[in-house]
Amino acid sequence: MKIVIPGGSGQVGTALAKTFVNDGHEVVVIGRSPAKSPWRTAVWDGKTLGDWAAEIDGADVVINLAGRSVNCRYNEANRREIMDSRVDSTRVVGEAISQAADPPKVWLQSSTATIYAHSFDQANDDVTGVIGGNEADAPDTWNFSIDVATNWERITNEAQTPNTRKVLMRSAVTMGTGRGGIFDTMLGIVRFGMGGTAASGKQFISWIHEDDFIRSVYWLIEHESLSGPINISSPNPLPNKEIMRVFREAWGTRIGLPAFEWQLAIGAIFMRTETELILKSRRVVPKLLTDSGFTFEFPDWDMACADLCKRWRSENK
Predict the structure, then answer these.
(1) Does residue 31 carry a pLDDT above 50?
(2) Domain span at residue 147?
(3) Cβ of 81: how many Cβ atoms within 10 Å?
(4) Checking DSSP bridges between strand 2-6 and strand 26-31, what pairing results, if any?
(5) In this predicted model, what pLDDT tens digit does every residue of 238-288 receive, in sequence order?
(6) Quick one: which of 222, 226, 98, 65 has its CA closest to 164?
(7) What share of residues in the chain are helix, strand, coil (percent, to 5)?
């Protein structure tokens, strides 16, 4: 297959590209300044059609991962960049597909499990899940994230691509060993004895092992019956308190100092990020994926965390 990955220079895109190339597929990563790599690259500005669009004409699969990182303070300038980078890039990918003489069979569009409501008790699946934005006393930053996700999906759905199947990948946090990723960041906290409970510890974390994310992408490409919003997440999200306990045990760290909500707020300012990434309860589970027959190699966090810790040690000797 020829697989084109706009915005594919980050951790997830790189992991996908490596796997696809190793499996013998032709891969093209489109980015603003793509680095030298084992796959071909093309340059775009993320908002206008250009020579890069020729790569989509004749491709089998497009996987759009473009979008500015949300790991930042949600000030006015950053909010505009976060929203525009997703809306503009998605719109222009849709235009490239609609103008292609030989359009791709499937367009996998990045979305996020953050689109669902903050929930401690109800698990949000991709059939009956409740879209967030109306929770009582939800911070403005949480509502902004949901606005971003809903606009991301709206632009995808508005694209006129009648010959291309669309899949909205509502992904949970992807846990891989790449440096600077969420697992690597969390592990750094655990290694230095700071990996205790955050705030109440009751807030759920939805996650997926990187291997299962890649396998699920293959599954979505191959199963033509799947379209629209699809949750890509382990079937077993856990509260923050349990996530961190397992993390400490897997790494072999006994000490894990807790952090109160006010401490997290101060820390987020110094780290130039938002506490939403820690405090919002994302209890998200897959349904359409598993109903179609997909099985997880790492359905449980203890298995996944132990494997990732082992890999991290091996890669960072």
Answers:
(1) yes
(2) 2-315
(3) 14
(4) parallel
(5) 999 999 999 999 999 988 888 767 565 655 554 555 566 677 888 999 999
(6) 98
(7) 40, 15, 40
Residues 204-246 pLDDT 10s: 999 999 999 999 999 999 999 999 999 999 999 999 999 999 9
pLDDT at 270: 45
Question: CA angle, 247 as apex, 200 and 197 as ends, to 5°?
Answer: 15
- Model confidence over 73-128: pLDDT tens digits? 788 888 898 888 899 999 999 999 999 999 999 999 999 999 999 888 889 999 99
pLDDT tens, position by position, 124-160: 999 999 998 877 767 777 788 899 999 999 999 999 9
Block residue for tokens 């700071």: 194
Using an 8 Å Cβ cutoff, are 233 and 207 in contact?
Answer: yes
Q: Give the 3-state secondary structure of residue 257.
A: coil
Residue 208 tokens, joined: 């997926």
The letter for the amino acid at 156 is T
Return the structure tokens found at 193: 């004895």
At what angle are helices 11-22 and 210-222 packed, to 10 degrees? Answer: 60
- What secondary structure letter does DSSP report for 8? T
Number of domains into which the chain is organized: 1
Would you tell me how many other CB atoms lie within 10 Å of the CB of residue 316? 10
What tokens were used for 37? 């790599």
Residue-wise DSSP of 80-119: HHHHHHHHHHHHHHHHHHHH-SS--SEEEEEEEGGGBPP-
Nearest to 103 by CA among 180, 232, 4: 4
Q: Do residues 7 and 64 lie in contact, with contact meaning Cβ atoms separated by under 8 Å?
A: yes
- In terms of Cα–Cα distance, which of 10, 180, 149 is closest to 82? 149
Q: What CATH number should be reported for the domain holding residue 182?
A: 3.40.50.720
List Cβ neighbours of 137 (8 Å cut-off, separation of 6 or more): none
